[in-house]
Design goal:
- The protein is of the alpha+beta class and 203 residues long.
- It folds into three domains: 59 residues, OB fold (Dihydrolipoamide Acetyltransferase, E2P), CATH 2.40.50; 70 residues, 5' to 3' exonuclease, C-terminal subdomain (DNA polymerase, domain 1, Orthogonal Bundle); 50 residues.
- Helices cover 44% and strands 19% of the residues.
- It has nine helices and five strands.
- It has a five-stranded antiparallel β-sheet with strand order 3-2-1-4-5, covered by helices on one side.
- A hairpin with a 2-residue loop joins β2 and β3.
- α7 packs antiparallel against α8 and α8 packs across α9.
Length: 203
Amino acid sequence: MYEYIKGQIAQISTEYVVVDHQGIGYQLFMPNPFVMSSKQGELVTIYTYQYVREDQLTLFGFPTMEEKLLFMKLLSVSGIGPKGALAILAAGAPEQVIQAIENENDTFLTKFPGVGKKTARQMILDLKGKLQDVVPDYFPNLFADPNKANLSEWHEMEEALLALKALGYSERELKKIEPVLKKESLSTDEYIKKGLQLMLKLS
């Protein structure tokens, strides 16, 4: 019903954001609401998916259309509901999820909450070869040479650390996770997700 909502970020919680559009606050459940922390109070566009069941009416929000499309593809897999699809998008970099499906890496897929061997195989069966058409521009380097250095990785990690600091984490806490983050090759948002996962393990 709703393709997107444009408004100001009025509130951010661990599970959702509230977008104020013309005086109405829309609660949008997101994979990682904290990626919007730098935009709080700003005018943003969030792509939405309305999930309707007899006992549930929920709006899910995504910063990009590509992430929304990937969410919808995951929902089409038997055994994966909206919470499971959100958990996959939140806990793993979408590019890594797509790579795992394309490479039939069910061991990687079973690392996500609620995804067992059977569901992982179903994901591969249903989605392999179909995701590149859905997100052709989202992962332009998906099948590029993995040995090529990404010159922006360091800058992106630094931006992620600054974002985590803005969320209230101390320099001492950030120093504990920095060596782990340095081993990864991720985007800024993905570094933030990874950092949040590591912080939760420390707490």
